[in-house]
Amino acid sequence: KVTPADRMLALPKQFFANLVEKANVRIAEGHDVINLGQGNPDQPTPPHIVSKLQEAAANPLYHKYPPFSGYSFLKEAVTKRYKADYNVELDPQTEVAILFGGKTGLVEISQCLLNPGDVCLVPDPGYPDYWSGVALAGAEMFFMPLKEEHAFLPNLHAVDDETANKAKLMFMNYPNNPTGATADASFYEEVVAFARKHGIVAASDFAYGAIGYDNVRPVSFLQTPGAKEVGIEFYTLSKTYNMAGWRVGFALGNRDIISLINTIQDHYYCSLFGGIQEAAALALTGPQQCVLDLTARYEQRRDALFQELESIGWRAQKPSGSFFCWLPVPQGYTSESFADKLLQEANVVVAPGNGFGVHGEGYVRLGLLADEVRLREAVQRIGKLGLF
Ligand code: PLP
């Protein structure tokens, strides 16, 4: 009999797997299911990036092991993107780590920084991978509630001094999954001051950095004076260029932390396939119209969806970034019982908010990951249940 190590038992349950399973049962029964529960972009990668991979795959250099921490040209490409988009200067050799998607870095940073018993501040609701890293490190989580009345930003003043002084790491994520909120420069200034005061490393998850609405470009944490002294930012091509399957991400910023992340990666991996690195570099330095088109498409979808929501009387706040809508559940339901009802009676999959933390209770998350027609249809089906 195999006995897993304790750390395996500490890992949170993968609730997306559960969601997919339930939806698949409905599909197997022959129902026309509209799946808005996951975070997988529905559009293909722009063709110029795909062509570059096809061409690069023939390069025999890439058939060998790549350099441990990845090719310099890719690190240079991401620093150029940050300079152009955010006017942030980064040294490609010491302030960039190439990751297998943002996800690996989000888990690894806890292993790099936390000892058993250390405290990590995590947003609630929040992306569950933060918990996984903390659990694997044997550390403890202090949940910072994200509330609608506080614009879904954590209230740093509400973290008591004892906890703040014990904390070694904090996560933040704007544009936010699941709430669709964005943060402005003043929030990040507060974070830098808080991190300095208590000796905390601030980790910004900027997975949805490119997706901001109403002509507002989301702010990068690294634009804040002093950010590099106290933290890093995780950046990924998954959402910006519809490249979720390619697994390309980065950690950027504080060189001591970057060095730790590169060290842990040396033990797990030997960097990404060179052809993928070359295509990723083109994504970052080539034409950016595809990014503008992608954001415009999500914005159109958002507006179509909210028009429909209004027509059925489901009132909610529009997201200002990311491709998620965070919608309150009607009275008499929990987030889970409501999501179940939508699946069973409307064949619409949404993610129950409690999967993102206790403060996610009372909400469901809906992804703008189907075309306008399907999004409108999903809401009309829900409207027929007569709950609003
Ligand atoms: N961070 C957030 C908030 C996400 O929603 C996701 C993916 O859904 C990731 C990070 C991971 O992205 P990647 O594909 O780069 O691993």
Work out the oligomeric state of the chains in this entry: single chain
- The topology string of helices and strands comes to HHEHHEHEHEHEHEHEHEHHHEHEEEH
- Please summarize the sheet with the most strands: 7 strands, mixed
Number of strands: 12
Q: Terminal Cα separation, in Å?
A: 52 Å
- Could you name the CATH homologous superfamily of the largest domain? Type I PLP-dependent aspartate aminotransferase-like (Major domain)
Note the overall shape. Answer: globular
> What is Rg?
21 Å
**Global structural class:** alpha/beta
Tell me what portion of residues adopts beta-strand conformation.
Answer: 5-15%
**CATH fold node name of the largest domain:** Aspartate Aminotransferase, domain 2
Give start-end ranges of low-pLDDT stretches.
Answer: none
Bound compounds, please?
pyridoxal-5'-phosphate
CATH class of the largest domain, anyone? Alpha Beta
Portion in helices: 40-55%
Which sequence of strands runs across the widest sheet? 2-8-7-6-5-3-4
CATH architecture annotation of the largest domain = 3-Layer(aba) Sandwich
Average of per-residue pLDDT values: 96
Structural domain tally? 2
Alpha plus pi helix count: 15
Protein name: Pyridoxal phosphate-dependent aminotransferase
Organism: Paenibacillus chungangensis
InterPro entries: Aminotransferase_I/II_large (IPR004839), LL-DAP_aminotransferase (IPR050881), PyrdxlP-dep_Trfase (IPR015424), PyrdxlP-dep_Trfase_major (IPR015421), PyrdxlP-dep_Trfase_small (IPR015422)
Pfam families: Aminotran_1_2
